[in-house]
Amino acid sequence: MNNKIINVFVGVIFLSVILAACTPEIVSKTENTTTPASFTHSQDTTNTVSMKWREYFTDPNLNALIDTALSNNQELNITLQEIEMARNEIRARKGEYLPFVGLDAAAGVDKPGRYTGKGSSEATTEIKPGMETPDPLQDYMVGAFATWEIDIWNKLHNAKKAAVSRYLSTVEGKNFMVTNLIAEIANAYYELLALDNELSIVKQNIEIQSNALEVVRMQKQSARVTELAVRRFEAQVLNTRGLQFGIQQNIIETENLINFLVGRFPQPIGRDTESFVNLIPKTIQAGIPAQLLENRPDVKQAEMNLAAAKLDVKVAKARFYPSLGISAGIGFQAFNPTYLMKTPQSLMYSLVGDLTAPLVNRNAIKAAYFNANAIQIQAVYNYERTLLNAYVEVANQLSMIDNMENTYNLKVQEVEALTQSIDISNNLFRSARADYMEVLLTQRDALESRFDLIETKKRQMNAIVNIYKALGGGWKY
């Protein structure tokens, strides 16, 4: 008996070697994880991303919005359920390489026809009185049964490891969503503050232009200007009033966007509008590019997906090899319930081992193997693309911070010069040393420059938000 078992195992090993030699060749690809030594605009290894978002954003109104969104945002909560499903997938994969054990109970009756092979053979058999087979024949059985696939080639274990990697990928996906959500709320909040300031500027200009219109009307009565000047000043006031309603609509839409991200129905957004122009951008320390591998959730997500894809290739390859299954059962069976517990007569058991291996027409297995390898190569490219994109985003935002700082300083000087020119043009107009067109153009340029200043401040704050997101900040909370 032992010799037979040894011969079987020798045959299995020999067959495995043959099948392994017949596995199709594939072209694999290894990911490139090298990054530049440093960013162009940063040579420091200290990284701002170590700050938690509550420390990075100091506006209490903004922090309250972010805190609410992390609890109520529907998309984030949907992602949390995807994480739960990925966790359940791990349980399912783990259960596949453990024995399946179940209980079975059955009852039945069998009455073969007289003119059938079984019925006629029983009728012609001479059986001693009291020992004949009951007619109809009842059958009662109760027992435990088990099946188990021996994971010789680690196919099932690798499938479970792939499920773990995908679970970790969904966790990183959630972290990446948190980072994006925080950045989106912060950018919308600064957009709202900018719109508030634009609306304030428009109202101030409406007042200035209305006063100028009254002056022009008085000068027209004294025949110092014509009706054309009055109409041009009046048109300017109407145009500015039209800007006011457009900005008010943008404020409503931005408030509703923030409320949507926070996960609640529209309501007023608490904010300190006057503090916007005095906001000072933080000093950013970008660290080194290699830190993106640990800090960026999307890079880590791509890494986990790549790890899962590599394991899927191993799983697909293992399908070319033989699989060994064991099934066993033990219980009691009798044609009368009173005999069920009479042993050893009613005891029944079974033990079966089966070895299966694909030999002919393995096209489906080959196709799955090639597809798994193609997906793994895709995952390599996706990982490299994600890492490259992370570096580019940081580089762009670092450059944006520097350029917006210089632009803002120049815009401040421009606004000061044009604000002074409004008073100068008005005085010259009153003394008939400048025509009304110069006054109108000066007012328009001053309004546009103040709008540009607010826009530049907003872009400054957006760059501060986006660099924090690009470095991978926000998800550690």
Description:
The protein is an alpha+beta fold and 477 residues long. 63% of the residues lie in helices and 10% in strands. The protein contains eleven helices and four strands; from the N terminus they run H-H-H-H-E-H-E-H-H-H-H-E-E-H-H. A four-stranded antiparallel beta sheet has the order 1-2-3-4, with no helix packed on it. Helix 4 packs antiparallel against helix 6 and helix 7 packs parallel to helix 11. The radius of gyration is 39 Å and the shape is elongated.
List keywords for this structure.
single chain, 477 residues, alpha+beta, 4-stranded antiparallel sheet, 4 strands
Order of helices and strands: HHHHEHEHHHHEEHH
Low-confidence stretches: none
Helix content: 55-70%
Gross geometry? elongated
CA-to-CA gap between the ends? 64 Å
Radius of gyration: 39 Å
- Lateral strand order in the biggest sheet: 1-2-3-4
Q: The biggest beta sheet, please?
A: 4 strands, antiparallel
Topology, number of strands = 4
Class from helix and strand fractions: alpha+beta
* Overall pLDDT level: 86
Our estimate of the beta-strand percent is 5-15%
Number of helices: 11
How do you describe this structure in short?
The protein has eleven helices and four strands, in the order H-H-H-H-E-H-E-H-H-H-H-E-E-H-H.
What is the secondary structure topology, with strand pairs?
Elements: H1 2-21, H2 53-56, H3 60-72, H4 74-96, E1 100-110, H5 117-124, E2 137-150, H6 155-221, H7 227-262, H8 292-295, H9 297-318, E3 323-334, E4 347-356, H10 363-430, H11 436-470
Antiparallel strand pairs: 1-2, 2-3, 3-4
Helix pairs in contact: 3-6, 4-6, 6-7, 6-9, 6-11, 7-11, 9-10, 10-11
